[in-house]
Amino acid sequence: MKISPGKLWGLRRLSDDNGRFKMLAMDQTGPIVNPIKQKRGVDVAAFSDISAVKGMLAEYLAPHTSAVLVDPPFGYASAVHSIPPRTGLILATEWATWVVTEGGRKSSNIPQWDAGEIRKIGADAVKVNLWFRSDIDPEVRAHQLAYLQSVKDACKANDIVFLLEFLIYPFPQEAPNVVVQNRTKMVLEALSDPDVMNPDGVDVYKLEAPIHVHNVPDPDGPEAAGVQKIFDQMASNLKRPWVLLSAGAGPEDFLKKLVYAYRAGASGYLAGRAIWAQAFDQFPDMGAMEAKLKNEAVPFMHRVNELTERMARPWNEHPSWQGAVEMDPAGPDFAKLYGKAK
After folding, report:
1. Distances (CA, A) of 58 to 69, 118, 172, 272, 274
2. DSSP class of residue 303?
3. Residue 29's pLDDT is what?
4. What is the enclosing helix (H) or strand (E) of 232?
C-alpha cells in the first residue's frame, strides 16, 4: 500500500521515533465545561476558566506525549504555546456540533472550519468523532456516511492525516444505562458495518474499548482470555492502525485495557480523562490542580508510555502496510506528479 507525502509526514509527526502513538486528548467539551459550570454555579463557563485549565494541561502533560488533540474554540489558543515543537498537533473539525434526533445523532463541521483551515494553522491531523451505532435511522445513517465521506475528501485534498473516532451513545428515549448494559454488542456491531468501516481515506482509528469502562478484569487473571477474545474480534475488522481512548476510565482500568488492546495490535493511545481527570477534580483550586498534574498525572503518563513502548505495534507494521510504507509519488517526477496524485 502507498501513502501520500503529507499523510506520511503527518503520521511520523504524530508518533514517537519508533512509530508508536502516545497522544493526549484535551479537546473534551462536557467533561471540562460541565464541571466548571457546576463548581462556579453558572450557566455558561467562562472562557478564562476553560483556557486556564487547558493551558495547564498542555504545560504539564504535552511534553510527555507524541501528539496533542485540541479543540479549535478553546484549546488551540490556550495550549499552542505550551506544546513542544516536536509534538504532533491534531485538531477537531467537529466540536459539540452534532444534532440530536430520535433516530440518532448527526455530526457536522464547526461553521467555517474544515480540513483546509486545520492545515493552514499547522496541524498534522484532522480528528472527527463520528457518532454511530448499527440501529440508527436510515436517514441519519445516510447523513453520517455523507459527512464521513466529505471529511475524507477534504483530508485527501489537503493531504493531511485523517483520524476517525467512533463513539456509541443512547437515543433520547432510551435509559442512560443502555450503553453500559450493551457496550460490547453495540461497539462490535458498529465497527462491523462495511460502509462506515471503509478504510479508504482513513489513516488511524480512535476507538473505545469493547468492554465496560470500570472494574476491568486483570489481563493476567482468570477472565483475561474472554476479554481478549472480544478485543481480538474488534481488531479483526480494522484495516488501518488504531489507538485506544480512555472513555472516562480510571488510571488503573485504562492501563489494563491498554494491555488487551496492545495484545490485539493497537499502535498506541489517544486519551485524556484517565490521565488528567483526577487533577482536574481540584478545580477551581489551580494550585492543587497543578500539584496533582506534577505529582500524579505526569508519573502516570510515564507508566502508560512505558507500556506503550513495550507492547504497542508501530503503525507502520500494521498488516495493512504489508511490510512496507511506500510514498506516492516518489522519484525524479515528484514535483510534476504530486498535485495529480492527490
Report:
1. 10, 19, 34, 11, 15
2. H
3. 85
4. helix 224-235
Which cell goes with 4?
Answer: 501520500
Nearest to 54 by CA among 254, 286, 291, 294: 286
Query: Quick check: helix, strand or coil at residue 26?
Result: coil
Q: Is 315 helix (H, G, I), strand (E, B) or coil?
A: helix
Could you tell me which of 295, 246, 299, 300 has the C-alpha nearest to residue 269? 246
CATH number at residue 262: 3.20.20.70
pTM (2 decimals)? 0.96
Phi, psi at 187, each rounded to 5°: -65, -50
For the chain, what is the domain count? Answer: 1
Query: pLDDT tens for residues 22-74?
Result: 999 999 888 999 999 999 999 999 999 999 999 999 999 999 999 999 999 89
219 cis-preceded (ω within 30 degrees of 0): no
Domain of 239, in residue numbers: 2-341
Q: Which of 268, 272, 256, 161 is nearest to 217 (CA)?
A: 256
